[in-house]
Amino acid sequence: MEKSYLVKSQSSLEYLLVVALTFAIIVPTTYLFYNYSKESSQEIIDAQITKLGTSIIDAAKTIFYSGQGSKTTLEINIPENVESAQIIDGRELVFNITTSFGTSEIVFFSSVNITTISSNCIVNTCKLPELASSGLKKVKIEAVSKDFVRIEVI
Amino acid sequence: MKKSQVALEFLSTYAFAFIIITITIGALYYFGIFDFSKYLPQKCIFPSQFKCLDFSLKPTEVRIKLVNNLGENIKVTSLQITNDAVPPISCTPPASFDWTYATEKDLAFTSCTGGAYIVGERVELRVSMSYYALDTPSKPVHLINGKINGKVISS
């Protein structure tokens, strides 16, 4: 009878030890990987914004130098965390992004004049509200005059 | 009577075990055994337009080396450093300066106090920088934020 209790208690203790050891490995590992992936996702968002901003500016330059009436459409994937997008002074394409350590403005500079539909422009700032939500967007880039290129989400 | 004694002894044994385990876990927590963040790599994260090349955390000084990848000459108007500690870290930031594109700058925050900024401790600092492009007519000021996660080392 006593031997049976001993065997039972030993197996219970062994079971508890295995569970405790498993927890001792899983909890720190999960914490470390979670933090590591959080920082990596920040870098991925930054890389995505850089890629799409550069592609818009490069396309605007190409269209501008192709002459009035030239146009192209880009398919761009807006990542999460983009709060707003705007064009300032016809040369700065600005994306406001939120990160775990605050809001940052990612700015792309264009050597050709860029604008958007006139109803979105106030003084020297033109808003691009459609670029402020995540997902796949079609962006039309058109040389509407010899002086500037219009960027429009369709 | 005997049954109640056995029950009481059983409960008091469990209570003692519970108290000892709680004290042990508390002591381990106090001595930082459960602070897993110290096993994370030391890192400096900035947007790629101001890539962080290097950093150092010395007892009263924070240095960051950034590169201007904007493709534009800019003027940095202000720099700030802070963290979540109470009171937060307070340093003397570098004065405003012009920054030519594709060049590196070594930014030094000096006379750092507070913010649990202690030698041997792991700290997480947030750096914010305001700038404007010199060639943009209205000179709109832009803000970028970065993060440093590292250990303060004695100089």
Brief characterization of the structure:
The complex is a heterodimer of chains A (154) and B (155). Chain A has 154 residues and is of the alpha+beta class.
Outline the structure in words.
The complex is a heterodimer of chains A (154) and B (155). Chain A is an alpha+beta fold and 154 residues long. Chain A has one domain. Chain A has one helix and nine strands. The longest helix of chain A is centred in the first third of the chain and has 65 residues. With 155 residues, chain B is an alpha+beta fold. Chain B is elongated and about 95 Å long. Chain B starts with a helix and ends with a strand. The model of chain B has no long low-confidence stretch (mean pLDDT 90). At the A-B interface, helix 1, strand 3 and strand 4 of A face strand 8 and strand 9 of B.
